[in-house]
Amino acid sequence: MHSGPLGSPPCRYDRQRRLNPSGSNGTRRRESGTALVEIDYRTLTVGTRLPEAAFETDNRSIAAYREAVEDDENADGTVPPMAVAAGATGALSRIMSLPFGAIHISQELSFRKAVAVGDKLTCSGELISRRDRRDFHLLTFRLTVRDGRGRRVLSAKTGLLLPRALTGEQAGEKTDERARALERGQTADRGESDPCTP
Amino acid sequence: MHPLKHWQEGDRLAEIRRSISQRRINLYAAASGDYNPIHVDEAFARRSPLGGTVAHGMLLLAFVSQMMRRSFGRCWLEGGRLNARFRVPARPGDTVSVGGRIVRREEAANGSIRLHCDFTCRNQREELLVAGEAEVPMGVNARHFGQREKPRPQEPQREEPRW
Predict the structure, then answer these.
(1) Residue A35 or residue B90, greater confidence
(2) Residue B127 sits in a domain of what CATH number?
(3) Is residue B110 part of a domain?
(4) Cβ separation of A73 and B83 shorter than 8 Å?
(5) What is the pLDDT of residues A29-68, one digit of tens each?
(6) B156 in a structural domain
């Protein structure tokens, strides 16, 4: 059985609230008639907040998740906590363009409240650490998921390793210079773009 | 295993085993929305340094969470924490065994108990795929949950009437 992924409503980017019309660190794309912003990881600086993404934990998507992970415990109508985490990281991946070679190297999770099937959740994120080395970038994001009443149900830290060999960058290329160039719109691979600085 | 079990340091959590197949990886990609081709595109993954598709790290953590929930019930859902490091990716054809044990039992003055566990995911070759730690708060009323129940005084045996 397949249904939409957790977080299936595409992440709507509240442009009025979040975007600075003058800058650029995201390219806008269009999916299913909804304007989305895809943020480029190369331009993110520590402290950058990602736009909020909403997702639902409806029966179909949770059933699909349970089938995938072979989770047969459904006694009390609660969502498997890792389904909430998957929804949050899935939302992150839809907001931000990561190269295909991105490797998930660490994960911290803190489950605050049980989530009932059908709850509408909102995920927000922030880049809290960034290391740019000769051969790789190491990014750490903090994610927070809140329920419809604004209560925090999940906190997470996600560590991603981005090998330059897989990102199309040259080893040792100075990312901050590249980021500045991207912000000035000087690179050829940029389309229309928007910032998401806090 | 019942969440109110008498947990002590050194106790092992009931192991979980799951097989990894490309079908399962694809199902997880569909459920989570993570379609990174390193997970789902065999041609792409073959050309990558990993040499083939690999399972999502979060899929393995889902198995860890299942083990924790089976052991600690709702306490895991409302206050559980974990910290995982991904060492080696799981691949289609692997059988993943998830195990854990209690490494520390903290008892606060108010009676609440916090259990500290470590956990691992290993494949059939005993390679360490994921290592990590987890914490579970057993609640303020956990003193009697976490401790062995005192044996009830035995009631005097009544003689069954003979019919």
Answers:
(1) B90
(2) 3.10.129.10
(3) yes
(4) no
(5) 434 333 345 677 777 899 999 888 888 888 999 999 999 9
(6) no
Instruction: Express as a percent the part of chain B with pLDDT over 70.
Output: 82
**Higher local confidence (pLDDT), A157 or A186:** A157
The interface predicted TM-score of the complex, written ipTM, equals 0.82
The answer to whether the Cβ–Cβ distance between B30 and A64 falls below 8 Å is yes
Residue located via tokens 């080395």: A133
Tally of structural domains, chain B: 1
B66 and A78 within 8 Å at the Cβ level: the answer is no
CATH of span A15-183: 3.10.129.10
Q: Which residue of A has its CA nearest to B74?
A: A114
- Please indicate, yes or no, whether the overall pTM of this predicted structure exceeds 0.90: no
Burial of B6 per CB tally in 10 Å (0-12, 13-18, 19+): exposed
Choose the closest CB to B33 out of A67, A80, A90. A90
Residues of chain B with C-beta less than 8 angstroms from the C-beta of A112: 78-79
Residue B2 lies in a domain: no
Two tokens, residue A88: 């949050």
Whether residue B69 is contained in a domain is answered as yes
What CA–CA distance (Å, rounded) separates A138 from B18? 30
**CA-wise closest residue to B2 among B141, B139, B145, B106:** B145
d(CA B128, CA B122): 5
Q: Which residues does chain B have within 8 Å of residue A98's beta carbon, measured at their own beta carbons?
A: 36
- The minimal CB distance from B31 to the residues A65, A106, A165 is found for A65
Q: What angle do CA A186, A187, A192 make, to 5 degrees?
A: 85
Q: What is the pLDDT of residues A165-176, one digit of tens each?
A: 666 665 444 444
Sheet of strand A96-97, all strands in order from the earlier edge strand to the far edge: A26-31, A34-40, A96-97
What residue numbers bound the domain in which B61 lies? Answer: 12-146
A67-76, A91-100, A129-138, B4-13: range with highest mean pLDDT: A129-138
